[in-house]
Amino acid sequence: MRDAFSAFNDGIVMTNPYPVDQVEIVQAPLPDKVVLPLQQRIGDEAIPCVVVGDKVLTGQIIAQTQDVFCVPIHASISGTVAAIDEQIIPHKSGLKSTCITIQSDGKDVWIEREDCGDFLHCSPETLIHHIQQSGIIGLGGAGFPTHSKLSKSLDCHTLIINATECEPGIMCDDALMQHYPREVVRGVEILLHISGANQAVIAIEDDKPEAYRSLLMFNHNDKISIVQIPTKYTSGAEKLLIKTLFNVEIPSGGFATDKGFVCQNVATSKAIFDAVIENKPLVSRIVTVTGSGVVPNNFAVRLGASFAHIVALAKPDDKQHDIRMGGMMMGVDVATLAVPICKISNCIFVNHTKAKPHVQECIRCGQCNQACPVGLLPQQLYWHAKSEHTDRAMDYNLRDCIECRCCDVVCPSHIPLAEYFSFAKALHQQQMREKHKTDVARERFEFREYRLERNKQERAEMMAKKKIELKKKMANDKVQKDKIAQAMARVKKTKQDKK
Ligand code: SF4
Ligand code: SF4
């Protein structure tokens, strides 16, 4: 793979290793069953609002959460809830998670949904709520909830539609733009209406001329421009894309919205069109199936269908395969084809199984430092990540690592650097959470001590006050008693004098 690198620190030119003559979208048949995980990319696990045995319609909400970062989960086929139990999900942990399984009735009957009407007459808040209720999250891979991003972007001046396919081999966005250019452009118009941005830029790599032409043909809006950028790996990373398009740097730890930009993925734009214009929630997506073990193609598939369901359509050969979700670089290995397609499953790589290279010690060659497109020092990060000194790694801007694996592929020692960085980030977050918990516990303890001490002082002051009052009272009583005794003595004396 290293031969594919032609430039360092300016992005990496990589060609699609599995090119196709024509970018198609094959409609996958309805699956017999779908498995829908309740844990989404971000936020709390959703709570089912159906029970086993319930009949559900396509598009019906089957699980909800109050977490503002989350979206509802919709049935992607009509049928019967067959199980609510633990299933393996497509995650690098390989762990199980609670899922709802729906057995298809083969009819695909859709639920009636409340329409939000002409979007031009809707407030941004109404549309953001409708998008949230339609289950839309970023379809580029990060899976950040779209409604949450939109809520934070109402002051932005520029909307960027990221139409750069993040890695070579993935063709689903190219296919989407070629087959649904009108819907993409209309989706961008809805996003412009919501954000109030002055302009929208659709950024597309220059190796997708057909998609570029299709979008140009259907764009009649002066506020929307379609810009071709050089095809270089990692140019689709949000901060790098803003730098390429506008020469604006987003500082370490900062956000695009800090500088007035908001980025949305091109497939998300089409999903917004479906939700707002067609009134359909997100229940399917386009997935590229590629790799040395299949005939590469794109498939429109219902969420929750198994990987096996669409890999079978890509005519896999009978050799042993390694399965990867996402791209060759940033994807995650999955152990089984039994896992379900989820909203961020943009690509499935099915490659002939190869022996993994032997990992050796770092020889301090510095090649990783030259390869990092973000300008980090992976060699330093590696030492601190390996020794679990995450604070030191953060000093070297670990949070800016986009886990692109450019450093991995140039490392002569085959060290899985990005895995170390991913682990170090997760560990740092956990340490921060634990530190926060410890800080809260310490503050509570200190407040309790302070409260007890204050009570003690207040009691002592009260006792002292009471003592003084008592003394005063006793002194007063004595004066009174003396006065009474004197008065009685006077009366007695007067009586005696009269006698
Ligand atoms: S994985 Fe992180 S450190 Fe390595 S090249 Fe990519 S951004 Fe840089
Ligand atoms: S490329 Fe690999 S061996 Fe070279 S400095 Fe980086 S981590 Fe060490």
UniProtKB/TrEMBL annotation:
GO cellular component term, pick one: plasma membrane
Gene Ontology biological process: electron transport chain
Quaternary structure (record): The complex is composed of six subunits: RnfA, RnfB, RnfC, RnfD, RnfE and RnfG.
Keyword Translocase part of the UniProt annotation: yes
Protein name: Ion-translocating oxidoreductase complex subunit C
Location of the 4Fe-4S ferredoxin-type domain: 353-382, 392-420
GO MF annotation terms: 4 iron, 4 sulfur cluster binding; electron transfer activity; metal ion binding
Cofactor note: Binds 2 [4Fe-4S] clusters per subunit.
NCBIfam families cross-referenced by the UniProt entry: PRK05035.1 (NF003454), rnfC (TIGR01945)
Binding site for [4Fe-4S] cluster 2: C372, C401, C404, C407
UniProt xrefs under InterPro entries: 4Fe4S_Fe-S-bd, 4Fe4S_Fe_S_CS, Ion_transpt_RnfC/RsxC, Nuo51_FMN-bd, Nuo51_FMN-bd_sf, RnfC_N
Top-level taxonomy: Bacteria, Pseudomonadati, Pseudomonadota, Gammaproteobacteria, sulfur-oxidizing symbionts
Membrane topology according to the record: Peripheral membrane protein
Keywords: 4Fe-4S, Cell inner membrane, Cell membrane, Electron transport, Iron, Iron-sulfur, Membrane, Metal-binding, Repeat, Translocase, Transport
Cofactors: [4Fe-4S] cluster
Top EC group: translocase
Family: Belongs to the 4Fe4S bacterial-type ferredoxin family. RnfC subfamily.
Free-text function comment from the UniProt entry: Part of a membrane-bound complex that couples electron transfer with translocation of ions across the membrane.
Enzyme Commission numbers on file: 7.-.-.-
The species this protein was found in: Bathymodiolus thermophilus thioautotrophic gill symbiont
